[in-house]
Amino acid sequence: MSRTAEETLRVALWPGDPGYDEARRVWNGMIDRRPAVIVPCSDATDVAAAVRYATAEGLAVTVRGGGHNVAGLALADDALLIDLGPMRHVDVDPAGRTAVAGGGALLADLDGATLPHGLACPVGVVSETGLGGLALGGGYGWLARKWGLTCDHLIAAEVVLADGSIVRASAENQPELFWGLRGGGGNFGVVTRFTLRLRPVDDVWIRSAVYPIEQAAAAVRAYRDAMPSQPDDLQLVGAFKRAPAADWIPEHLHGEPVLAFTTVWLGAEGGPEAAAGLFADCPPAGSIDRIIPFADLQSMGDGSEPAGRRYYTTSGYLADLPSDAVDVLVRYAVDGLTTYSTIDLGYFRGAVARVDDDTTAFPSRDASFICSASAAWDDPAGDDHGRSWAGGLIRDLGPWRSEGSYVNYTQRSGRSAADVYGAHRYARLAALKAQVDPTNVFRGNHNISPSPTRA
Ligand SMILES: Cc1cc2nc3c(=O)[nH]c(=O)nc-3n(C[C@H](O)[C@H](O)[C@H](O)COP(=O)(O)OP(=O)(O)OC[C@H]3O[C@@H](n4cnc5c(N)ncnc54)[C@H](O)[C@@H]3O)c2cc1C
User: Fold this and answer.
1) Given 29, 48, 83, which residue is the final one in a domain?
2) Residues 179 and 261 in one domain
3) Do the beta carbons of residue 186 and residue 436 sit within 8 Å?
4) 115 is in which domain, residue-wise?
5) Nearest to 81, CA basis, from 165, 11, 169
6) Residue 35 in this model has a pLDDT that exceeds 60
7) pLDDT tens across 357-381, in order?
8) I need a labelling partner for 113 at 20 to 30 A (CA). Which of 75, 248, 282, 454 fits?
9) Residue nearest to atom 47 of ligand 1 (CA)
10) Residue 419 falls within a domain, yes or no?
């Protein structure tokens, strides 16, 4: 039965209400925005009522999935916030290898439902992240090289459009909307249900290794040279950070800037053999190997970037990593890495690059590396340093950047959606936007304007 806006708004939170401040808190402690009203929604009918109310009142609409967006895009001042927190339920069809997840599900909710069946959807590496924002922007993690992005696993979506209508988008129904949902961010409507394809998973072999900063350039070059010939079952990511006081890391490195590599082999057997030749001429200062359940891999990053800290994260794709680019990375690691900051370096290709470029709105599938600089600090006095350090690194990597960037690792300032998607893709996204959201009700994101000339 359809609910009225009045019934839906009965549970809404207005400024000054108990719970309002808690409900407008997101992961990034830098974000302090005050929505006009926050509407918790339990299903598509609630969402439709909230959207209709907002348009009648002339309010912009923002959507909160998991609230983990680095730029705090779930929130905007004076907008109506649709809070999908009550919609975290996940149903699994183990035989059909599919799951249906509510629009507010976290990655932990999805894994919690699918992993008992030995199945997973490829998602991100921190289980506290929201599926909504991650899937709509792309979504990559440990399974990306083998199986592709989260958005590549979307079979269908239930979507509430700007006029309050509820539609189902899939390859057969509303194919252009289905294209745009896979990488175009939350620009086209509110996804209240994600139907996802699942993959079989097993225990994994994992190696953590650490290099002193003096050896980092050689190790990055070895990584660059090795990755193009590795099998898709092997994933290897690097991170410049300050070394934790782990017992497998030499004590003199504790607290110092280091380069850490995590190698993951998808399977309990064969990992050491697969990784044997990787850094043969460049052994690490310390390392540890183990075999862990896939569930532990999925939550391994939890707590590493806790909610409430101040963050500035930005990223760029790199076509290649010549020595000059490696030197830039090392320079920023030596100079300005705070206690919690990281520079992450990931390698894609594999299944990500095998999807035809036109199949989804996700840009830059042919990029080799993604570099993200994540500045993190506690004291607001560090805001300027955090912004200029992370922004400066990505700017200084400019000569080696390839077109586009990852919408989910992009701060708002200085970047428009046209930069993220490139001119050709942006024009197609803008045409879709003009069709499904001509008055730009959903504009609190990396916005695709319905009028490309206003981009
Ligand atoms: C600690 C941490 C780890 C991360 N790790 C990874 C990773 O491994 N891989 C990766 O690819 N990304 C990763 N990310 C980036 C992540 O994909 C983005 O931050 C993403 O936006 C988070 O989605 P969310 O639903 O939590 O965010 P929110 O802040 O709730 O929303 C983000 C955007 O998506 C929109 N949105 C959310 N849900 C919906 C919906 N159901 N319908 C319509 N619009 C919606 C919002 O309106 C907003 O514009 C990480 C981020 C953090 C903070």
Assistant:
1) 83
2) no
3) no
4) 90-200+425-439+449-454
5) 11
6) yes
7) 999 999 989 889 999 999 999 999 9
8) 75
9) 63
10) no
Q: Which atom of ligand 1 is nearest to the CA of 69?
A: 19
53 within a domain of the structure (yes/no):
yes
* Residue 136 alpha carbon to ligand 1 centre in Å: 8
**Ligand 1 centroid to 38 CA: how many Å?**
19
- Ligand 1 lined by 406 (C-beta under 6 Å): no
pLDDT digits (tens, 9 = 90+) for 380-418: 999 999 999 999 999 999 999 988 888 898 876 545 787
> Cα separation of 212 and 29, whole Å?
31
Residue 213 sits in the same domain as residue 192: no
User: Is residue 188, in this structure, part of any structural domain at all?
Assistant: yes
Spell out the alpha helix ranges (H) of 306-422. Answer: 323-334, 351-354, 383-396, 417-421
Same structural domain, 385 and 351: yes
Instruction: Decide whether any atom of ligand 1 lies within 6 Å of the 61 Cβ.
Output: no
* 65 close to ligand 1 (CB < 6 Angstrom): yes
pLDDT bracket for residue 454 (50, 70, 90): very low
**Placement of tokens 């680095």 in the chain:** 70
Together in a domain, 184 and 215: no
Q: Is 103 in the pocket of ligand 1 (CB under 6 A)?
A: yes
DSSP H or E segment with residue 99: strand 98-102
The tokens for 60 are: 């912009």
Q: Which of 261, 269, 191 is nearest to 226 (CA)?
A: 261
Q: How many CB atoms lie within 10 A of CB 134?
A: 25
Q: Could you read off the pLDDT of 303-333 as tens digits, one per residue?
A: 889 999 999 998 999 988 999 999 999 999 9
Average pLDDT, the chain: 93
Look at residue 2 and tell me whether its pLDDT is greater than 70: no
Confidence (pLDDT) at 320: 87
How confident is the model over 171-193, as pLDDT tens digits? 999 999 999 999 999 899 999 99
The verdict on the CB of residue 346 being under 6 Å from ligand 1 is: no
- φ, ψ of residue 263 to 5 degrees: the values are -105, 130
- Last residue of one domain, picked from the residues 43, 66, 83: 83
| Greatest extent of the chain over all pairs of C-alpha atoms, in Å | 68
Cβ(314) – ligand 1 distance below 6 Å: no
Is 312 a pocket residue for ligand 1 (Cβ < 6 Å)? no
| Best residue among 63, 81, 153, 195 to mutate for probing ligand 1, ranked by most atoms within 8 Å of CB | 63
415 within some domain: no
Check pLDDT > 80 for residue 16. Answer: yes
pLDDT on residue 127: 94
Distance CA(197)–CA(75), nearest Å, equals 30
Statement to judge: residues 16 and 77 lie in one domain: yes
Atom of ligand 1 nearest to the CA of 103: 41
Q: What is the pLDDT of residue 452?
A: 57
73 Cβ inside 6 Å of ligand 1: yes
